[in-house]
Description:
Layout: H1 3-7, E1 14-15, E2 20-23, E3 28-30, E4 33-35, E5 46-49, H2 52-72, H3 91-105, H4 112-125, H5 130-137, H6 184-189, H7 192-195
Antiparallel strand pairs: 1-2, 2-5, 3-4
Helix pairs in contact: 4-5
Amino acid sequence: MRRSELLGLRWDDIDLKKARVSVNRGLVAVAHELREPRGKTPNSRRSIDLDSTTVRVLQAWRNWQRAEREVAGVKSEDWVFTNREGKPVHPQSISQTFERIAARAGVPRIRLHDVRHTHGTLLIKAGVPVKVVSERLVTGTPRSPSTPTSTCSPVCKPKPPEPSSSSSKRTHPGPPVEGPHNTVEALADEPPARAFRSGGGI
């Protein structure tokens, strides 16, 4: 998903039981004002399947967000990602937070948007058809000769990786959450207040 699509998510767009998110809008900054476009391209409005770990992280985040808002007396506007006042996060703020996390982790610096392309690359490497990846990311018509001609839904789930004898858990591709955690599964079990504090949101 694009940065604008993530920040434009409302909880009504996410079905945790069906493990699916509906991309219906974006959130962009125009002359320092936040606006809600309907999408960058005609195909931007789409549904995306979620893996079980992402579902657990989102559920934990929602529970913590509700508790924090109740204690702080902040009125909910149903945004998934918010600042301390319960308002939508400014796009530039989330990019700056990403850069600080990457700098602390000591990893090569990339743009937040590059994570989206990394996701696509990893899907293709895992054996997901190019056409499926293209539809999932809404990158336009793929030009690769290996692109299948059959129509495939953008919510097709990638083939699960073969179990590895050296590790029973998938390693988190990004920097670890504060503490000795280095897997996505560990993030799902981490209290959201700790896992999301760097973004300054509630």
